[in-house]
Amino acid sequence: MATRSPAATAADAGERVLPTRSQRRRRRSDTLTILGFLLPALVVYVTFVLWPIANTFYFSTLDWKGVGQPVQIGLGNFAELLGDRAAWAALRHNMVLIVASLAIQLPIGLALALLLLVPLRGITVLRAVYFLPQLMSTVAIGILWAFIYNPTFGAVNRLLELVGLGALRQGWLGEPQYALGAIIVTICWQYIPFYMILYRAGLTSIPIEVNEASLVDGASPWGRFRYVTFPLLSGTTRTAILLSVIGSLKYFDLIWIMTGGGPSNATDVLATYMYDLAFSRSRLGYGSAIAVVLFLLALLITPPIVLARAGRRGVA
Fold first, then answer.
1. Could you give the CA distance from residue 124 to residue 41 in angstroms, rounded to a whole number?
2. pTM of this prediction?
3. How would you classify the pairing of strands 62-63 and 71-72?
4. Which comes out higher in pLDDT, residue 178 or 125?
5. Is CATH 1.10.3720.10 what the domain over 76-315 is classified as, yes or no?
6. By three-state DSSP, how is residue 72 classified?
7. Whole-number Å distance between alpha carbons of 309 and 29
8. Taking residues 274-303, what's their average pLDDT?
9. Mean local confidence (pLDDT), 178-185
10. Lowest CB count within 10 Å: 5, 42, 80, 305, which one?
11. DSSP assignment letter at 269
12. Average of pLDDT values for 242-253?
């Protein structure tokens, strides 16, 4: 008759089995190995993410030009920010970017994703052409569209002349009433391909049996999209909304390249206004206060979208 070990007998009896010395040593060694692999990434994250964020909060309480002795003023920068009309205008422009992104980029990206699933001749070439803006650097896009909007030899004004609408020629980036709209067109051209690829990935993840079942039930193409395809894309749509909102809040590079926030602050957003104050006007403390506001806005907006997505998964 086979004998059983004391540990196995104790386990059968429901007693707590203490790990042996070798097991504890092995567990400690595994823990140290894991920490050893995590430590370099943790050091980088703390140094280049957490520490700058903490420093920004500290700088936002200072009256400091970046050199010399800083003066601690507490919440003085934030009090000034509440009465800063230029800052409120910049925030309003951020909101316009968010609305334009949600109303233009996402629907057109979804429409193009649906189009790319149609088995048309030359569809592979179209996919490459549609995705081309994502392969270009933001600097190149900014310079390209600055030439397109040029009032003297730009393509937009030349096209208006060709179709007999020369009276509508404008200095698109030099007129405050047109500059922000021109910037929005450029941003949409840059990011629509990204949302197209995102939605295409979501569409390809939908089981083909679902569409076949809707065809058998006699659903029209619009009915299939409305009641089958679009509801199954809800996770992709929430991800797109999150990326769109956060991206519109922190947008900086293209606007700075094309207009620098001008003319007359007509295209300023919070990021460009912050950069101008901190590095062009040497108001590092006030610029840091704007950065803190941007951080808190993103922190307030992100959780509801993420929690809505997690809640929908829980229901599913």
1. 39
2. 0.83
3. antiparallel
4. 178
5. yes
6. strand
7. 39
8. 92
9. 94
10. 5
11. -
12. 91
